[in-house]
Amino acid sequence: MTRVAFVTGGTRGIGKAICERLKADGMKVAAGYSGNDEAAKATADELGIMVVKGNVGVWDDCVRAAKEVEAELGPIDVLINNAGITRDGFFHKMTQEQWGEVIRVNMDSVFNMTRQVIEGMRDKGWGRIVNISSINGQKGQVGQTNYSAAKAGMIGFTKALALENAKKGVTVNCICPGYIDTDMVSAVPENVLAGIIAGIPVGRLGKGEEIADMVSFLSGERAGFVTGSTLTLNGGQYMAA
Ligand code: CAA
After folding, report:
1. Residue 241 domain flag
2. Any domain includes 238
3. Whole-structure pTM value
4. At 176, which helix (H) or strand (E)?
5. Residue 153: which CATH number?
6. Total domain count for the chain?
7. Over the range 162-174, which residues count as b (16 or more CB within 10 Å of their CB) and which as e?
8. Which residues are catalytic?
9. What is the distance in A from the centroid of ligand 1 to the CA of 3?
10. Which domain holds residue 210?
11. Is residue 188 part of a domain?
């Protein structure tokens, strides 16, 4: 059976690597994106996948995006909540905008998108939801009270939703990547990033493909017994229990 996967934030960075991998696994894949039309077109052409524009922090955009994917590819069997942004800054200097944007795009998005697909998955008796959280949701990070709060929120969401749907053939898991070689990480000030890399036992940034491999397993037929898990993929930077 050909599964349909929707990857939010799927046209760049980790999301793009996930799309490529799920397509190679034989799925029909659609990638969501919010602003960068040029990158979206390039990814659509390169990978031969559908792309859908919309802001995952906005409910109506998610309703429309899910409908568009379903109309073109069929009901969504696999949802990867990957879209995320940073608006880093010390909390004592943080604005309401920095806080609100990050909570909407990284946290509200998980409700907005998952709510579109969960009933269909339950009715079908099969579904895979993978939430891309972060090492910084596990350990905290200076300059990221907003991001760490949202990413930690995804972990709790994952566990509760996994419990609710375990008997329905729907698994819900969470991956916490460490620092991966993406545009988001390149935006960290150079001296700060050098210090972070020095603290990664494996001695380098991670690669999008390394996250995509784990997503591939969790999204597949053989992962039915893995649910409610938080998987830590960070080169040894933080060893969560
Ligand atoms: N712990 C404690 N204090 C620190 C600190 C740290 N790690 N880093 C800096 N400080 C102190 C400085 O020493 C300085 O103190 P003084 O004023 O007494 O000298 C003070 O904080 C201000 O430092 P800056 O001038 O550097 O502050 P800034 O406001 O310009 O920048 C920052 C602060 C926004 C936190 C900046 O350092 C930064 O962007 N850090 C990177 C945060 C980060 O790792 N983001 C991850 C993005 S990637 C991602 O999120 C993906 C993922 O999932 C992993």
Report:
1. no
2. no
3. 0.96
4. strand 170-177
5. 3.40.50.720
6. 1
7. beebeeeebbbbb
8. 147
9. 42
10. 4-233
11. yes
